[in-house]
């Protein structure tokens, strides 16, 4: 598997080095927040940064290199009494930090003088996922408490990325772009809906 991925990478780099006509740099950002619970004491916040470079070797076709970082923080302040003890769990905070490195092909679906251009990207991605949870507790008798730091888990995963974007031409080489992207384990397309990111940003072509 590693030798196949390396061969593909070398092949794409050779194409980009010899046939590039245009280069496009992009930066996207996404943010979401959800508040829940009877007293709205709980929340989930997520922010995503994405950077990309596309090397066009044909008018509408490019090799794409991309990187994204996503951090999701879930804070739950629901108080739970531990049965048969003098302690209560006051809440917890879970943090999932995901880094994705990708390489693939980008295809613009419309060319010419159109000011709105849809495009799709598809390729190989490597995910690095770090998951950690901290819990807060209290002794109900002494009213003293503390924090239990959980051991973070780390995972690497060979994946596939797919992106659909709409690019709006706003100036010479400058574009506004909205994207929806999914990353899922290789050969498991049924999981594509489990990781979907919506972002907006700018691209610059030169």
Protein model, in words:
It is a single chain. This protein is mainly β and 206 residues long. Helices cover 9% and strands 68% of the residues. The chain has an eight-stranded antiparallel beta barrel. A hairpin with a 2-residue loop joins β8 and β9.
Task: Write a compact overview of the structure shown.
The chain is mainly beta and 206 residues long.
Question: What layout of secondary structure does this protein have?
Answer:
Elements: H1 2-19, E1 22-36, E2 42-56, E3 61-76, E4 80-81, E5 87-108, E6 116-139, E7 145-149, E8 153-171, E9 174-185, E10 196-205
Antiparallel strand pairs: 1-2, 1-10, 2-3, 3-5, 4-5, 5-6, 6-7, 6-8, 8-9, 9-10
Rg is 22 Å
Tell me the CATH topology.
Porin
Strand composition percent: over 45%
The main sheet comes to: 8 strands, antiparallel, barrel
| CATH class category | Mainly Beta
Question: What attributes characterize this protein structure?
Answer:
206 residues, mainly beta, eight-stranded antiparallel beta barrel, 9% helix, 68% strand
